Amino acid sequence: MRISVLPLMVCAALMSACSPANFFLGEDNRPAAKPLPAIDASLQTAVLWSDSLGEGGDTASLALAPDGSADTVYAISADGILAAYDLRSGSKKFSRDLDLEITAGVRYGNGQLFAATRNGELLALNSSDGSITWRTNVGGAVLARPALAGDMVIVRTGEGSIYAYSTTDGTQRWQYRIGEPQLSVRGYAEPVVGGGVVIITTDSGRLIVLDQASGFPVAEQRVAVGEGYNDIQRLVDIDATPKINQGIMFGSAYQANTFAVDLQSGQVVWSQPQVSTADDFAMSPDALFLHDGIDHIYAINQRDGDIRWHNDQLEGRYLSPMVAIPGRVGSVDGEGYLHWLNINNGNLIGQTRIGDTNALGAPYIGQSAIVWQLADGDVVAVQPQ
Known about the structure:
mainly beta, 32 strands, single chain, 4-stranded antiparallel β-sheet
């Protein structure tokens, strides 16, 4: 069935997410890492606390990431250790061994936590003690964190299905089948929810909009086209979770382009073919910040897609998904160094070692700290000075 693009009434919503950086769980094509750059650091970062939570997601390229509320941050390890920390001090409010293999999580909302297991179960947990309130089998692997939409939790399986469940008791509300290509990069973007719709990006370079209440398709648009002589060269997976600002949705397709779509008209506003990523990117009020497959960092204007600045000093250093805060943008590299760049010109302004490896998922940005869940399972909270 062919679906025409219809006007979309979508509110502005900022979402963070993550996708694995490794290509097929094997070796990638990035160049040898450049030496740690020597910089005249003007920005210091304090490590507030750290904790070795449990098994990390590095062996299976799981983009596990923390989530939280005003004063609490939650994290879950690949071997099922769920913990709640005081955001500022790192003291544990609870820790629970679920004795489950986790592939996606954790998502917090309305007093509940949501995660997914290796055998295809969606879990709803009590955020006060980590006890399981309900569980249901979704029929496939889940690698992206669930999204919350009012009284529904939305999950996406690796087989290409989108499910909506009641947050109260796990009753299925609706299902939509995407239909994904057989060959793709491991991982996929989280669903984006807002304005009564659910936005899905696919491994074939398409944008699909579903009615939030019914799951019925409202619109579909191709935003990336693969080019090359074989199937691998033509991969255009959109694994970076899109972000929305003032009715414009921004996304990036692996080895294809970074793009902007007007959610009112459904039209592509601009396409930037020089820069693309399979990892999550960061956003300020007027720019996007991302690193490409060889860890060059770019700032792109939201208005027209022009490249504002480019920094290649961290080439090949296995950068984590980017994070942006006022005045700076940062990433953790494969040796555990947190690098900060000036948000206006891309100059390196800070460098602090916060662990032994990078993070495969995006950090949680709280009022008093930024918290990363590193690929080896360590949870680390920092505060830029």
